[in-house]
Structure formats: structure tokens, C-alpha cells
Amino acid sequence: MTIETPAGPPTARQAPSERTHHGDTVTDEYAWLMNKEDPATIAYLEAENAWTDAATAHLAELREKVFQEIKGRTQETDLSVPSRKGGYWYYTRTEEGKQYGIHCRVPVRPGETDPPMGDARPGEEVLLDGNLLAEGKDFFALGTFDVSPDGNWLAYSTDFAGDERFTLRVKDLRSGEVLADEIPDTFYGSAWSADGSMLFYITVDEAWRPDRVHRHVIGRPAADDVVVHQETDERFWVGVELTRSEKFIVIDAQSKITSEVRVIPADTPDVEPILIAERRQGVEYQIEHHGHRFLILHNRDAEDFALAYTSVDAPGEWVELIPHQPGTRLESVDAFARHIVISLRRDGLTGLRVMCDGSTDTYDMEFPEPLYSVGLSGNPEYDTASVRITYTSLVTPDSVYDVDLVTRTMTLRKRKPVLGGYDPADYEQFREWAHAPDGTRVPISIVARKGVARDGSAPAVIYGYGSYEHSIDPYFSIARLSLLDRGVVFAVAHVRGGGEMGRRWYEDGKMLAKRNTFTDFVACAEALIRNRWTSADRLVARGGSAGGLLMGAVANLAPETFAGILAEVPFVDPLTSILDPSLPLTVTEWEEWGNPLESAEVYAYMKSYSPYENVAKLPYSKILAVTSLNDTRVLYHEPAKWIARLRATVPEGQFLLKTEMGAGHAGPSGRYDSWREEAFNLAWVLDTIGAAGA
Hints:
The protein is α+β, with helices and mostly antiparallel strands. The protein contains twelve helices and 38 strands.
């Protein structure tokens, strides 16, 4: 069969459709692309894919080379550091040539305190093999993986489409039998009762909002399951989990700015949930069980959060434990039998603070590099005097340490192998600052190979996100080495809307301050150019999801600042989506972006920055938009419409759309498929910035 190469990019037909809000009528000529069931929509997406294949055919050799570099630097047969829970060590291993992880455990030997490392040892029990589950499937993802407290049962859920609707199953780990219990259309999260007889899980409403917590009795039909809690406020998501102490099942309801938590004693799982504190608009809190008390991390009169506690027996008054300290953002709290560990950030860096039980004395863990990321990792055991942490930086591969909370000693258990002679001393990382138009100093993290010229000639990539208080902290990437080793400078712009500099940093980049996210990013790009890290004709911007909105906005705001823009699953038609409460996630998003249905001011503000609304006859850089047909978070039609309008408005522009026809928000699911996807993206980036031949 001969496949004909397209002579040029496809032209999307125009079928004008009008919407009117607040007296403003808008014509959307590509609204028809929202119909996923229309064969014309699929045909158009496939035509775009064919054009993208043709337009990038000259990069095939480079793509393969980059893929082989990623693969060659990765230890394909590998083992995670085992975590102890009860009488077992739990771990995941990978095997060369296989796409997915294999989840295993081995019994703890008498007197064994250190995790067993190296090859799998006798007695290994395979709990779940993702490769077997994924056989014959184009996509595979796990939602829940949850072993019961007694170690006898495994609850797991699978998604074979990428739409994040999971089917929940239960496996008897004693016999290896998968029970007849099968529950479709569940969400992430689960919790076991203390005796393992009952399983709590979550389902979603028609708008893909997790709104109900169910209780399932093992061995009984799903039709008998009881709805334990239903959240009727469409702004709120629900979650469920078992505390580390295994004493309480926690049901939390969270909007973007408000929380409410209930608990159920795990040894009496059929009682009504107990409310910890009623929701109060604008007050967020999370709880952690610690002996006779619930620890409460909250922002009540504490913008950067404080830590308090209340009685387990009679939740009520909050007693202060760590007062609010402006500039030190407390992000989470983890309780252990004799210690509390607080995850925080200060001065743009993450940190860990330890508090001994029965004492207000605390100490902060210290780390050697000027730029890094650190956080707790797993830690399923409650009665322990040590914790596991993960540490990384722009030059240090992911590292797993066990920390003795009493002696404060850190033991390196494993550093992610990077094959091929990687030496962190060959690279340098820097922190620089840009000045936003309003005078705000915006941090930039930079990594480059030593010796890269600072004369403006180096190619560069700048990455950004800037929403939901999500921080893009310094991190190591094997794939990124394919850029750095070709002389490319890599930078992260820590723009407002993220959480890098505390809660105020987030507040100043959302709602009616959202434009700060975009102008911060442009200021960071201009700082890289001004400080001679790169030049505008050798700089690519990259971002995904809400960071894809950032990409679309800066494409309109500063088209001549970038040689190219890589927008992954980009939220580029936000106003249309946020105006439609029937779409997945819309109502829950109003506290992040504003409600343009009710507010003319919000409507006008969102319209002023929406990438799709503001496509114009501009000197756009090259643009590659990557999306997935089954994405339920940012629907495929947003980038499809955006590229269609860009091409119609600027016919001479170089705009590409690539749609994964069988994946979701995170793209391809298998690791080799993901590496090939990244190789495709990096080859396009290298070609755009003139580094393809380096």
C-alpha cells in the first residue's frame, strides 16, 4: 500500500457558530471540531498528523538518534529502592524491552533493617505485571494500587483508553486469584478498612468530577455498595485515603480555595463519617493522624499556612503548633510515631523540617547544592525513626536517601543510573532573576554544559507553567542531556501563578492577575537574551496543559522573542471551555480563572489573553502543538481549533498539530513510546533552534 505524501497542510473547513455573553457576540468558525464522534473531525486530525509527518520527515534520523540516546542512557532493567510495610519489602522493577513496571514484594528476613538491593531474590512475589495487563492494548495506566493493611488483598484499577476512567479489581495475594469484584468507571484513590473486609473508592459525575465515595464489601456485588459521601457542590472534588497510622479513613473535599475533611475509624468502617471542621470559604486545611490528635495544616489567618492540632476524640478547637511565618510556605505534614516532618518552601527552594514528638524543637535538613528539589518518598510505616526522601537537581540524578530522624544521618540508597559516562561536573546550574514589568523579581533556573559561550550564540529552551500553585522545581532529566550535550541552554522560568515563592506568588498569577504569568515569562526570556545566554532566533519556549496556555499567550504577546513554541496538550481556548459548565472540570476551574458566565469583568479579562481569541496577523514563530484524542483535562479540540485559526490567519506560518489518537493527558503510556514521543519533540526543538547538526 502506498501512502501519498501531502502536498501541503490541511485546510479546516469553516462553519461559523456564534455565542453571546455579556452583550458580546463571538463567531467560532471551528466549533465543529468539538464533535469527537463526527468522522470529519477524525479525518481532519488524521490529515494534520499526515502533514506533521511529512513536514518533519527530514528529522527521522535525528529522532531515532535522540531516542537511542535516551534509551542508551537509561538502565532498562532496574529496581526501585524497596520500602518496608509490615512483613514485606515492596518495590517495582523494570525489564529491558518491556514497556511497564512489575510490582513485587519479598518477605523481610529476621533482623533485616536495610532494604534489599540488586537482583530479585528468592521468595519474590509478583503482585502486578503491567506488561501482562497491557498485552494487546495501545494504552495502559494504573489508577489505584493499594495493598490492604494485613497484606492479603490488592486493590488495583486500570485504564486502557487514556480517559482516566478506571476499572477497579481486587486480587487475593494469598492465592493469586483476581476476584469477581469488578467496578467500572472509578477514579484515582482508595482506602481499606483495618481488617481488609471493606474497600472505599471514588466515582465521578457526568462532568468528570470525583463526587462520591463508596464502600464495597469484598466478595459482594458492586450493586450492594453504599455511597458513604456525596459532594453536591460542583466546585469540589472528593478524595479518600487511609492514614499512615491505619487508624482512620480520610474523606476530603477540596475546591481550589476551600477544604472540608471527614474521617471514619478504620476498625468501624460502617459508621457515619466524622466532620473535622466545616468548610469556610477561602480556608484550606489537610489533616494527618498523630496519636491522640489530628494535625491540621491550614491557612486560616495564615497566608503561607500554619500547623495546629485538634483532639481525635472530640475534633474542635485548633491548638497552634507552628505559627504562620510569612515567606515560609508550609506545604504538607507527615506524621510518624515519634516525629513530624513538614514539607515547606522558602526563597524559591523546597525543604524538610523535623519536629520531635513532645517537643517544639525543630530542625531543617540541609542540602549541599544551591538549586535542588527535595521531598518525602512513600514512607508507609508509621512506627519508624527514619524516613525516605528523594533529592534531585538540574545536574544530580534522582537520589533516594534514608534519613535517621534522631541522629540526622543520611544514607544514600540509590542514585538513578545514567549510563554512558555521565559526570555532573561537566554541567553547571545557575539561578538568575528577571524583572517583570511591575518590578517583581522572577527567578530563573538554568543548566548548561560547562564552557557554553555567553555571547548570545547558544541555542536555548525556556520552560514554564505558572498555574494552580504548582511549582516547577529544579529536576534532573535523562532526555534533557540530548539538548545539553548539543550546547543547548535549558532554563525554567518560575513565573507567578506557580507556588515557587509562596502563596502570594500564586495569588498574583491567577484570576484577574493572570496576565502576570505571561509577562513574567516574557521577562525571563528577555533576561536570557539580554544576559547573552541566547538570542531570540535561537530560543524555543515549551510548556504543557496550563503551561500550554502560557505558550499560546506569549505567542501572541511576544511573537518575535522566540524561534519556536512547543505547546503540549495546551489549554489555548480557555474562555470557550470555562463558559461551558457541562464540560469536564469547568465549574471546579472557576476559582482559578474566574467565572465568565456571571462576571462581565472576568469575561472581558479572559478574552483579552485567550490564545484562540487573540490570533492575529502577527509574525509568529514556528509552533508545534501536541495533544491526545482521549484527554479529559484539556480537550483535543482546543489545540486543533487554535492551529486551524493560526494557519487561516497567517498562511505563511509554520504551524504543526500532532494528535495521539489513543492516549490521554499524559500522552503515550509505555516508557519506550514516551521516549519516542520525547525524541520527536526534541528533534523538532533542535531543528528549530539550529542545533540539529550539533
